[in-house]
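Thread: assembly with ligand

MN 10:42: here's the input set. Chains plus the small molecule as SMILES. Want everything predicted jointly, not piecewise.
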Amino acid sequence: MHAAERALLEETVRDAVTRAVDAGASVDAVLGELGWLEMLDAEPRDAVEIVFTALGLANATAGVLDDVLAVACGVEPRPDLAVLLPRFGAWAPAAEAIDGEKRIDGLATARGATATDLLVVADDGAAVVPLAACAVSAVEGVDPIGGWHRVRGVVTGAAPVPVGADRWEAAVAAGRRALGHQIAGNGRAVLDLARTHALDRVQFGRPIASFQAVRHRLAETLVAIEGLEATLGAAWDDGTPITSALAKAAAGRTARTVATHCQQVLAGIGFTTDHPYHLYLKRAMVLEGLFGNADAIVLDVGRHLIHTRSAPTLIEL
Amino acid sequence: MEVAEFRAELHAWLDAHHHEVAPDFDPPGTLDQRIAQMQRVKGILYEAGWMRWGWPERVGGLGGSPMLRSELGATMAARNLADPGVYSLVEVLAPTLIDYADPDLAADWVPRLLSGEEMWCQGFSEPGTGSDLATLSCRAVPDGGDPDTADTWIINGQKVWTSLAQYSQRCVLLTRTGTPESRHRGITAFFLDLDTPGITVRPIEMINGEREFTEVFLDDVAVPADRILGGVHGGWSVAMSILPYERSSCFWQRIAYLYPRVQRLVDAVDEHDDRAAEAVGNAFLALHTVRARSRATQHRLAGGATLGADTSIDKVLVASAEQTLYDSIRKCTTGVMELDDTPLGDVARIEYLYSRAATIYGGTAEVQRNIIARRLLELGEEG
Ligand SMILES: Cc1cc2nc3c(=O)[nH]c(=O)nc-3n(C[C@H](O)[C@H](O)[C@H](O)COP(=O)(O)OP(=O)(O)OC[C@H]3O[C@@H](n4cnc5c(N)ncnc54)[C@H](O)[C@@H]3O)c2cc1C
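BT 11:07: finished. Tokens for the full assembly:
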């Protein structure tokens, strides 16, 4: 995609998502009208980068992560197909195949409320089962407007399509990249809130943006976000699971850095629910844990490097 | 030549010539040995053409993208053929000469630096001038009083922390030529021969026991006017022009140097030690992040972008990655750098202690954050 074409698309998607959020309309429906699935098919990188960054910036609730995961699993995505997400903090499939049954206990996005079918990956392969065969309950948790669901059940008789372990690995990597972009967008939005506040808020006779302690917190936040964006670029260019894992770890760390510094700068006003900051924080707290938080991924990567006794450079010029 | 092709051919060549280029001492070796090694390898690589790729033809180069230089420097660092700390002066100073020196003089000098015949150093800091470079006071006055007609300039003052001046033939020196209040508008850069009478170089012992940097005293040092870089009072832009190279190829070399240190660590730790796994994972994440950033920066530079304040982000990331790595090494191999008297302990100590400078040289961590706040976040003036 050309730079100009991409910039235009970016603007269109951001506007549409923001308008949908403001109007309380379905973000999935709006993205569908913009040709999300066609874009995902034709230009997956641009599509995911643009759409998930926009979701993060607008703190939008959507189910398009399911489409990204379905494609990675080799299954045709559709708006009425939800995908079973791993349990919080984990990245192993949330279903076990035992004696022809699938025992399911995992999460779903906002699509858990509207889908008719559920894509379930277990050790014996992938299967599409009726969502009605599972117990689906809305989860409020820290992020009640996030549209999160818990999905449980025992499903019998679903014929699994064999999918190799590498497919699930690819789905985890794709999910991590998408969530990484959403966290980057979330972080940019929060940094913007904190920056604006720092310039507007006057204490001791001057804008708090003139205090070095405040400036350094915001600088630290920008460094984290730009570092995260670089790891996402590397993950797309490289395509192996480990670079996507590292990007998700960078995302998790970035979410914490953004929260620590920007919340401190926003201080009292940011501690109220009158200010939008809390919504971003709460969304990021959930996004951070999906497909593994930073600490878990870092430990996993560290174990892998030590086990293989190798520390490869992963990306080249 | 494409970067990937260059990399493949370079590795094949280095494999074939391993015995010629490898150091003839065990690590850490003395600083003298390491400098001699670097100059020797530069000579061999210059002869074979590798050292000339990525440099313009008018200074003896073979042309091509500057990324070829990054690749060569990184390969030398990763193979422990040259220490990136000392090698980086090539990247820092040759571009300055190319951009600011008289073209004939640049064509004469630059090949000497690249081929290992000479070393050059950078004389910016002074006892009273560190982060706030615009306050420097080492004075240069035109002989005879007229800056427009003088053939010779006379320099008096002192520089400090000048890395490797004791090994160098020449120095890019910043001097005060305006009034003391003129700050960055009254600075002039000279390309000084260090064997000029009146110059005294005294090595200083660093925190890790090495004598890598020096004090340089200048006492009525006479320099020809054609050694002015960037014109009278034009020194500030000369100093600033160093940034893009220091922040692209030098960082790429430093990063390449750090990966083998992670390798050493993963070879050393116990497979079932999750505390070590966590420390290794953290170091690897920090290093991967700055590698990803630096790669993107170099592609932007190669695509014609001008690098500026945005490279302060690269600088913060590289410094914190280096320190995170050495903190991890210290945590996982406790006792080695503190009390091991074998060469293993020597290497660990020297490198760990040196890594503490990553947030000091090339603009401190705080100064980078000031730049990010002022220029990238546009937070206005500091109060
Ligand atoms: C290993 C090494 C090699 C070096 N090699 C060279 C060389 O080859 N040539 C050369 O010219 N110089 C060299 N230097 C010097 C280096 O450039 C300076 O040390 C550096 O610029 C910092 O200056 P300073 O040490 O005087 O610290 P200062 O500027 O005095 O700073 C002291 C502390 O105050 C902080 N500080 C200062 N100003 C501010 C501010 N505005 N806001 C917030 N905090 C601030 C700093 O961040 C630092 O923490 C080298 C230094 C080292 C350690």
